[in-house]
Amino acid sequence: MPDHAGLATNATVALRLAEAFRRHGVTLTFGQSLPSAFHLASPHVGIDQKVYRQENAGGTMADGYARISRKVGVVTAQNGPAATLLVPPLAEALKASIPIVALVQEVTRDATDRNAFQELDHVGMFAPVAKWVRRIDRADRLDDYVDMAFTAATSGRPGPAVLLAPADLLTEAAAPLSSLLRPRALSLGRVPLDRVLADPAAIAAAADALAAARYPLVVAGGGVHLSDAAAELATLQETAHLPVGTTVMGKGAADETHPLTLGVIGYVMGQGSRTQALRPMVDRADVVLLVGNRTNQNGTDSWKLFQPGTRFIHLDMDPMEVGRNYEAMRLVGDAKLTLAALAEALASRDLSARQAARAGIEAEIAEGIAAWRRTIAGLATRDAPLPRPERLMAELDSLLRPEDIVVADASYSSIWIANYLTAKRAGQRFLTPRGIAGLGWGLPMAIGARIAAEEAGSGARVVCLCGDGGFAHSWAELETLRRLELPVTTIVLNNGILGYQKHAEEVKFGEHTKAVHFTAVDHAAIARACGVEGVRVERSAEIRGALAAALDAKHPVLIDMVTDPDAKPPISVFAGHYPEPF
Fold this sequence. Notes:
Layout: H1 13-23, E1 28-30, H2 36-41, E2 48-50, H3 58-69, E3 73-77, H4 81-84, H5 87-96, E4 100-106, H6 122-126, E5 132-135, H7 142-154, E6 160-166, H8 167-170, H9 200-212, E7 216-220, H10 223-226, H11 230-240, E8 244-246, E9 261-264, H12 279-283, E10 287-291, E11 311-316, E12 329-332, H13 335-347, H14 352-381, H15 389-399, E13 405-408, H16 412-420, E14 430-431, H17 442-455, E15 462-467, H18 468-471, H19 477-484, E16 488-494, H20 499-509, H21 523-529, E17 533-537, H22 543-552, E18 557-562
Parallel strand pairs: 1-2, 3-4, 4-6, 5-6, 7-8, 7-10, 8-9, 10-11, 11-12, 13-14, 13-15, 15-16, 16-18, 17-18
Helix pairs in contact: 1-7, 3-5, 3-17, 9-13, 11-13, 14-15, 15-22
């Protein structure tokens, strides 16, 4: 095999490809066997292969890795079925702006368009779910195309890029550079690739609007995390005395122990939510600063969250997102740079009115959160015959540290986390697949997050919360946890139903389909069969001990927690349709 410098005469295109990936900071890939030539060459340049079990899990692992590392997540796949199963995780990455490069092997060039085994139109298939899709056909253009893929993934609004490589090209002898090209040396594998400051005139106008507003409000989305702008948001919050709420994906962008932080707002503000009593603060907001926020359906409670007279300032890297759903003063640029500039601009304005209003705002937020704690106190402490998720979340919240990472599956799991766990510092990470919200993505996303945390030398513990419906999509990755010896605590809320589907059908149609009920499953036994410690919890009094032991363990642990099937998180649209348990 060629040496690390790649100077041997038997160097292949696969080795050159691995070298190019390494130049962009890639230290590991999520992949199975194919493209074998690439995976055999990669260790020679210091790239490790993290092998997943299910072909639809690799892309989600790369997603979780990218969210925590803020590097490009790399996933590989073979042509045909493995490639098709990359479509859902890439769709999530596209909607949620996660930088991923997918390297997909194709059939050999001489077999193209001849109905070769597992041949598909990958360009057409990936086009709707990726920012950029190209095929490398010439060995001497390899660095060109790799650089384009990483630039697409990390520049502007981040997202997935797909690089297609014919199998026979990978085993060719490496080619010298074309006479038209120059050697490439830059590393482009971190996000954001380019930090662009919004127009200074627009920043000044936004500062004027916020300083003059009577009831300003900041709503931070996931773009704050992508830009690593939590510190700048905290400075703006403190300097200008601004209340801050977040979307579900933006949770953790603001410190939820700060007296000016509301918590998560949007479609999860029903009774039992942290922010239900703070709805009047949202209703009367006259100027709302949206930061890294897609103003999507969930984040705006189906676009009913704000009043008709509310004015908006919208800061986002993507000019097409700014003003998409709410006409707004435009701040097109990087959140980190622009928030810092906005805070500086506000510091030179007269903020006496904001400062005078601060004590009242803090008191209103404090009373709203106190009212929430009083509302949920019974459920969060009682020993119910069937354990309640509220009790679990209260116990987990008391055990989590500010640096810990919490990953949720889609559906109810994301909402339990959004409302019942506390972001104990600005920038704490809560990962939720809210791009297209696919079931089964919690565990593989947690695996990617755990690998990123370990690579960074972080002391963060990783907790994954799944429903039993979603977890059934990713059981196989328990073996991955065991094989990679990843100390992830996986909690399965085992209520025997597809909760969100059942309850939403009842609200909408007055009845539910038969698809929502499962037979009983012992997930702890499944975990033990895979060599993972499995603990079954059937009584509320057992919850804290099981959680504490799992969090302290140096190995993966699964807690199969039997829960009340009637438990519902505080989704706004459910209000009035079910008896409240409080």
